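Narrative summary of target 7.
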Amino acid sequence: VTLEPCLHHGKTPPCANLLKELGFREVIIGSHDKNKIASGGGNLLKSAGIKVKFGVLKESCDKLLEPFLAYQNGGFSFLKIALSKNGVASGGIITNELSRTHVHKLRSVIDTLVIGGNTVRVDRPKLDSRLVSGGKNPDVIIYSRSDKFDKTIPLFSVPGRKVSIQKELSLKGLSMFEGAGEFLKLAKDGKLANVKWLLIYQSSNFKDGKNLSLDLNLKQLFSGNFGNDSYTWYEILD
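Modeled conformation, tokenized:
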């Protein structure tokens, strides 16, 4: 297991108790659970005569757990960008429907979607979850120095959502930043607090437009495909 089995009674019983009842002979654990409420599962397993081994692939497990731990400690935020094969990030639809559906699934589970003011004015987006059946539409924060917007822009008329305009971001829960150059530059300069993960969807098609150009040091974490599109999670390094 990636994280030490919990010893916490919450909405569900403790994981460690279940492993004990199932009678495993050995449990191999990557990372210790440092949460005082949930920790102690390893000791319970040992007391039941189960062999317990800690620290296997610990560095990889710690990295995998970072978003979960960030969320536990108040919030997890990440950047999402769509790029053409030749690096264009603007000018309408870029990726295929499978990629866009996945984005809408993410929107349906996050608490807040953050978008730049200039992007709102130029693209006039809706930013809903219409490609997901029964999907929840996230609240929207527009990050802008000016609070003057055309209220006929579709994002303002989505039912059941709150739209706020902030000059200084205050985020809690699970937040996704949608945008390109403006947010990437802020993240690189350390001006987006705790935003250190980047999700890039890349089309297999070329697109006419200006290439996204920015020096950024990234570490690839995971990659997959949606049809001919690819998607990759990165860590933004200092």
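The mean pLDDT is 91.
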